[in-house]
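Obj.: predict assembly geometry.
Materials: sequence records (below).
Method: joint structure prediction, all chains together.
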Amino acid sequence: MLQENNISNFRLFIRENVMTTAIKRTSEITAKIVNPLLSSTKDVFETMLGCTPVRSGLSLKTRNNPEHELSAVIGITGNAVGTIVLSVKKQTALNIYETMLGTKAEEIDQDVMDAVGEITNMIAGVAKAKLQSLSLSISIPNLISGKGHEVHYPTEVTPICLSFESDMGSFCIEAGFSPKE
Amino acid sequence: MKILVVDDSRTMRVIIMRVLAQLGIKNVIEAGDGQAALEIFKNNHFDAVLSDWNMPIMNGLDFLKEVRQINKTIPFLMITTEAERGNVVSAIQAGVTDYVIKPFTQDALRKKLEQRIASLV
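Observations (raw structure tokens):
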């Protein structure tokens, strides 16, 4: 009986420590990408949209719903795997489109989504270039719209949410990464 | 002068074509991926190609390699976020003429195109 308890405790010890290490490595890799993401977001907004975004918050995400109703999602592979999401309000998306193309849009359509997707592609691409040691590749952006939509991350990943205010309107960059096994 | 503009983002194609129009270049054909662009390239004469890298179906680097099999000298500009040294080296080895790193201001793009393409007019 004593022996069975010892084995059980040992298994628990291993499981907790392995889990803690996995979560720690995942948190470390996500933290490593925060500064490149902050500077790439600033670069892209300043160069393509002529405004400097101001960070209004940094939090850990506890639910799968992005902050706003339109999300551009980019998958990342390489020595780290994960997801970068640009989450924007409808008006922010319309302002981005108008600034890039010089024409107004009243509703979120394919062209507005394309403009938001291209901004996200640039943010992810510039951040990737700043993280050369991770040898990352980025996917083509996928666009999701609608209140309450969800973006899922791997179970061991706790994504971060960087909130910004800008002349385009409110938006968030969400990201979660884990090291490649 | 006839230019082939290749990017999966319509937004980027519009921005690039607007800058080309400012340089007086209006004879432009667009494509949304490397495979579609290659088919167009095989059936038309172009004076220059402007291409994105990260595209579905066929990426810009593979498209560049295919173009160089057909035409060794046509100016081929890569307009991309792929700024890592290894990628730049791969593009140079494949025969890229010049590189424009996204993000860019329209002024910066215009200067680069003036330097590389408008001189061909």
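Conclusions so far: Strands of chain B lie at 3-6, 28-31, 48-51, 76-80, 98-101.
To do: check interface contacts against the pulldown list.
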